[in-house]
């Protein structure tokens, strides 16, 4: 039998950890790239884009389509990196919470 007071205490502790983790994620940055580093995108782990770096060799009219493709690829790469860091951080923040079988918390 699960003690409801213990469960509430665990949930409150987890809530504080989650809030701290979310704050950390808003400050932590990742950089993704495409085209062997020709395009680099930096964003926070809460997916706020901070910076876009484009190699000068791509700044030619005939490279427009390539540049557009590389920007999209770099954005997707950076988003994936941010997701990985966020998932790991949130799993760490919620570790140890003993929920009864069949009970899940929304994230």
Question: Runs with pLDDT <50, length 5+?
Answer: none
Total domain units: 1
CATH superfamily: Nucleoid-associated protein YbaB-like domain
- For the record, the CATH architecture stands as 2-Layer Sandwich
Summarize the amount of helix as a percent range.
Answer: 40-55%
Biggest β-sheet: strands ordered side by side in the sheet: 1-2-3
End-to-end gap: 25 Å
Mean pLDDT: 87
User: Which fold name corresponds to the CATH topology?
Assistant: Ybab, Chain: A
Following the backbone from N to C, one meets helices and strands in this order, namely HEEEH
Number of helices: 2
Q: Based on CA inertia axes, which overall geometry fits?
A: rod-shaped
Structural class of the helices, strands and pairings?
alpha+beta
How many strand segments?
3
Cα-based radius of gyration, to the nearest Å: 20 Å
What is the C-level CATH assignment? Alpha Beta
What keywords describe this structure?
51% helix, Ybab, Chain: A, single chain, 3 strands
In short:
The protein is of the alpha+beta class and 107 residues long. It has helices spanning 4-27, 64-94, and strands spanning 29-34, 39-44, 49-54. Helix 1 (4-27) packs antiparallel against helix 2 (64-94).
What does it look like?
- The structure is a single chain.
- The protein is α+β, with helices and mostly antiparallel strands.
- It has a single domain (4-94), classed as Ybab, Chain: A.
- Helices cover 51% and strands 17% of the residues.
- It has helices at 4-27, 64-94; strands at 29-34, 39-44, 49-54.
- The protein has a 3-stranded antiparallel sheet.
- It starts with a helix and ends in a 13-residue tail after the last helix.
């Amino acid at each position: 039998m699960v003690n409801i007071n213990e469960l509430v205490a665990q949930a409150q502790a987890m809530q504080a950890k989650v809030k701290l983790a979310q704050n950390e994620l808003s400050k932590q940055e990742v950089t993704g790239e495409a085209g062997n580093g020709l395009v680099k995108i930096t964003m926070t782990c809460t997916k706020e884009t901070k910076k876009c770096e484009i190699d000068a060799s791509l700044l030619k009219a005939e490279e427009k389509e390539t540049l557009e493709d590389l920007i999209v690829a770099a954005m997707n790469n950076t988003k994936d990196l941010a997701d990985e860091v966020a998932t790991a951080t949130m799993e760490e923040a919620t570790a140890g919470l003993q929920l009864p079988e069949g009970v899940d918390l929304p994230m």
